[in-house]
Structure prediction request, 168 residues.
Amino acid sequence: MIRRHLTHLLALAVMGLGTSLWAQGTGTTTSTSNSDLQKDRQDLRQDRRDVKKDRRDIRSDKRDLRNDRADVRKDQRDLKTDRKDLAKDRRELREEVKEGDKAGAAKERADIRKDKADIAKDKKDIRADRRDIHRDEKDLHHDRQDVRKDKRDIRHDRKDIRKDKHGK
Prediction:
């Protein structure tokens, strides 16, 4: 008789203890799991927004690069024409000096000074455009890195969501 009561008592204790442990475990796990799930979903949304923004930045950086390269080509064309003008003005200056035309020589000297100033300005513009190209290339590189990182974060967040949902 004592054996039967002892067995019943033992079975009742195990069942009661198991039920209480299961209730405590699932109650806390679901609440933390839900909050983890919500945070992971929030992170996922934010990472998708970041990817979208970074891709927009990449497109704008590519556009800036195209424009800066076009500016460099235009400035190089201007530089080439200014050098031609300078050489032509120097030839004309020699002709004016040979002929003894002082007024014409003074005009050619003024043209030469103007051409030299134009050449200096074009060289300065080319330097500035090349600097802009370098900065845009760096920005493009960083934006591409950001996209890679955000895509990696998306993969991790999706994996975390799956783990939270399926309890793995």
Q: What stands out?
A: The chain has a mean pLDDT of 87. DSSP finds two helices and no strands in the chain.
